[in-house]
Amino acid sequence: MRKLMTVFAVLVILSVSGTGHPVETKLPVPKSGAAPAAPAADVFLRFSKHEGISRIVFETADESFIKNTTVTSERNQIKVLFPSNLNLKAQGNPDMETSLKGNLYTITVNSPFRIKVLKLSSPPRLSVDIMAAAKDEGRKPAAVEATGPAITPNIRVVLDPGHGGYEVGIVSGDLREKDLTFSLARSVEAALLKKNKTVFLTRKADQFLSITDRAIFANQKAPDVFISLHLSMTDNFVIYISAAEPASPDAAGELYGLMSRQRRYADKSKALAEGLGNVLKEELKRDIILRKMDLPLLASVGAASVMVELPVTVASDQSVKTKITESLLKGIASYAGQ
Hints:
Elements: E1 11-16, E2 22-26, E3 41-50, E4 53-59, H1 63-67, E5 70-74, E6 77-81, E7 86-91, E8 97-101, E9 104-108, E10 113-120, E11 125-132, E12 145-146, E13 156-161, E14 171-172, E15 175-176, H2 177-194, E16 198-201, H3 211-220, E17 225-232, E18 237-242, H4 266-284, E19 288-293, H5 296-299, E20 304-311, H6 312-315, H7 318-336
Helix pairs in contact: 2-7, 4-7
C-alpha cells in the first residue's frame, strides 16, 4: 500500500479584514523534544567585612538551589558554580573583583587567602568567608563545604523592652513588667555588644513610647532582627509573629505603608521565631508556643520580627534570666547563621 506523507499547516482564521478576505496566522509547530527554559532563580548577594574577614552571602528562596551549588578555589580565584542561571541582585559591592558569566560567579583575590564555605537554611543561603592567609597556606583548594552556624558580622538587632513610663504592664507583688523587660533587654544588649554586634534599644530609660514611636525608631535603624520583650501571668513561653501573610507580586504598592511592612518579612520572622523557640526549649526544658497574631508593632517593622512573652515569675529569677539571655543570643545566631 502506497505510503502517503501529508504536511500539516495549522491555520487559524482570526478575523475577516475590511476587504472581505480572511486574515490567517500560521501557528509555529514546536520542535520535537523541546522543553521550555526554566526561569532564572532570584539570588540576593550581600557583602560585609569585619575583623579581616570578607563575607559574601548568596540568598534565595530555593533550598535545593543552594544545596546544588559548589564552591572551589584555584590560584587567586574563588569560583561559585550555581546549578542554573540566576538573576543576581547585589546589596553592597564586594571590595574585590567579581564577575558573573551564566551560572558561574568568580571572585578574584589579589593576596594569599583561605576560605570557609557554609550552606545554611532559614532562609536558604550560601556563605563564603574569605580570610587572609600566610603565603605558604593561601590559595589552596576549598575542600570543605559544611552546613553549620555562621553570623553576619554586621548584623543589626533592635530590642524593644515592653511598656515603660506610666505604662507599667503586669504587676506581681513588687515585680513590674516594665522593669523586668528593660533589665532583660539590657542584659541581651550587653552580651551582643561583647560580640561586637550592632544593637539598639527602643528605650534606654523608664519612659513611655507609643507603638508608632517604637516602629519608627526600629525602621530608622534598619535592623536584621527585631525582638519585643513582654511578660505574662501564665506559665507559658510564647513567641508571636505577625499574622501578615507574605506579600504577593501585585501587592507592591501597599508595602510602603507602615502597617504592611512586615509582609515582605513574614517568612524570615517565622524562621526567627522557630530558631528562638528551639533554643529556648533546649536550654530551659520547657515547651515553647509559637503563635500568629495581629500585633500592630510587629506588622509595622521591616525586618524579621517577633514578640517574646515570658512568665513573670521566670523573668525575675536571675539564674533563669541568664539562661534566657544566652538562649536569645543563640537563637539570633541560629537565625543569622552563626
